[in-house]
């Protein structure tokens, strides 16, 4: 393979990978200089000129002519007077010899090795470009097409044919994709695995929800409305705290849109995830009240040391505060940054009820804590439920629930 064929084939391959001309020339020169160093120990006294468009390559070895008896005769950048005269009869001591080195002088094997190295360098460059491209896109929404569905992940292809990965853990539980579907997700992170960039997408990240709001709500995109915090149970429920520094803009109304037009687009993309948009405030009591909506809070007591809140509600509001599957209270706790304990307000007919803490000698404290987290703080509030309801709410073992009912039941039997 001569230089012209080698360079032209490499240039064609590089152009197909969208490699710019200066980078192409730099890679060619690096590879040829590596060949020179392997054969001649150094490339410092070599001049390499490449014209990728024409497929031209010129390599000149530059050496200074010294006397045959000179101590410098063994230096790599020196040539004896006798040797120089063989190249050109009228050379004199002190002059420089420019000796052209043909590619064939390196041997067929070295040339084949150079060709493989060139292709590998382009592939490595392509990987670096891909890594850098998606590293800059972390936290941004991308669209890609499903081309393979595996057990633990879905493989997608972007518009340039690059592979993207949507792991099972980053999918919404209700997501159901088929080959050929277009999927929206954010670039969650970019890893390097055995030298190959691994682009991980996510549809469960709060950042995905934030980007969807930016796409659907111009005031959020323009910075007129700020998203303070987002908490999610992907596919089930989310709470978004928003704030506007312009009194003329209602941040909640702007995010929801006329008749819910803006938020519906977000909800559909998230597989009907229930989204609560809340007006942020630094007033903790008011913020907690909004976070626990649609439940109506009667009073709140905060413990700053333990970062816990005791929230008191009327009995008919407790289940609303907890929400289906406990999502409402869990998300409210994460949104405000406090652990929330829900308590029922006792009316005059419930005064004979007994606080669960009275049973701490018979029921483990961690079990009582679990009951309180679901708004059950008295014996009657527990006994008012069926065993199945209590098991589902608390995820306690059936045997434990039976024992709780036995202990509490004995109190009122007496």
UniProtKB/TrEMBL annotation:
Primary role: Participates in both transcription termination and antitermination.
Source organism per UniProt: Algoriphagus winogradskyi
SMART domains on file: S1
InterPro entries in the record: DNA_repair_Rad51/TF_NusA_a-hlx, KH_dom-like_a/b, KH_NusA_2nd, KH_sf_prok-type, NA-bd_OB-fold, NusA_N_sf, S1_domain, TF_NusA
Subcellular location: Cytoplasm
Domain S1 motif: 139-204
Family: Belongs to the NusA family.
Keywords, in A-Z order: Cytoplasm, RNA-binding, Transcription, Transcription antitermination, Transcription regulation, Transcription termination
Subunit structure: Monomer. Binds directly to the core enzyme of the DNA-dependent RNA polymerase and to nascent RNA.
Main location: cytoplasm
PROSITE patterns: S1
Stored PANTHER family: TRANSCRIPTION TERMINATION FACTOR NUSA (PTHR22648), TRANSCRIPTION TERMINATION_ANTITERMINATION PROTEIN NUSA (PTHR22648:SF0)
Protein name: Transcription termination/antitermination protein NusA
UniProt-listed Gene3D superfamilies: 3.30.300.20, Nucleic acid-binding proteins, NusA, N-terminal domain
């Amino acid at each position: 393979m001569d230089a012209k064929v080698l360079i032209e084939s490499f240039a064609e391959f590089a152009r197909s990978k969208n490699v710019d001309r200066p980078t192409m020339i730099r890679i060619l020169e690096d590879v040829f200089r590596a060949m020179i160093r392997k054969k001649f120990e150094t490339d410092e006294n070599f001049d390499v000129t490449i014209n990728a468009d024409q497929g031209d390559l010129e390599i000149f070895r530059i050496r200074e002519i010294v006397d045959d008896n000179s101590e410098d005769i063994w230096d790599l950048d020196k040539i004896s007077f006798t040797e120089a005269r063989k190249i050109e009869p009228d050379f004199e001591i002190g002059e420089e010899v420019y000796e052209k080195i043909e590619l064939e002088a390196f041997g067929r094997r070295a040339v084949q090795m150079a060709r493989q190295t060139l292709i590998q360098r382009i592939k490595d460059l392509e990987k670096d470009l891909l890594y850098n491209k998606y590293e800059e896109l972390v936290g941004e929404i991308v669209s890609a097409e499903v081309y393979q569905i595996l057990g633990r992940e879905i493989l997608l292809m972007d518009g340039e044919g690059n592979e993207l990965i949507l792991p099972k853990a980053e999918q919404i539980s209700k997501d159901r994709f088929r080959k050929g579907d277009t999927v929206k997700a954010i670039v969650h992170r970019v890893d390097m695995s055995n030298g190959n960039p691994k682009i991980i997408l996510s549809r469960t990240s709060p950042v995905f929800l934030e980007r969807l709001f930016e796409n659907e709500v111009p005031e959020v995109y323009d910075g007129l409305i700020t998203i303070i915090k987002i908490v999610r149970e992907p596919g089930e429920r989310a709470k978004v705290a928003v704030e506007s520094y312009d009194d003329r803009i209602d941040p909640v109304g702007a995010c929801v849109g006329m008749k819910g037009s803006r938020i519906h687009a977000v909800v559909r993309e998230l597989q009907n995830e229930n989204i609560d948009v809340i007006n942020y405030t630094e007033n903790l009591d008011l913020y907690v009240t909004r976070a626990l909506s649609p439940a109506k809070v009667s009073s709140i007591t905060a413990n700053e040391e333990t970062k816990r809140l005791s929230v008191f509600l009327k009995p008919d509001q407790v289940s609303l505060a907890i929400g289906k599957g406990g999502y409402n209270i869990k998300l409210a706790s994460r949104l405000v940054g406090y652990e929330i304990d829900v308590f029922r307000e006792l009316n005059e007919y419930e005064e004979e009820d007994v606080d669960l803490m009275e049973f701490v000698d018979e029921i483990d404290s961690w079990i009582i804590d679990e009951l309180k987290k679901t708004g059950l703080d008295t014996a009657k509030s527990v006994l008012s439920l069926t065993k199945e309801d209590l098991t589902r709410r608390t995820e306690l073992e059936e045997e434990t629930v039976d024992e709780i009912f036995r202990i509490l039941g004995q109190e009122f039997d007496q």
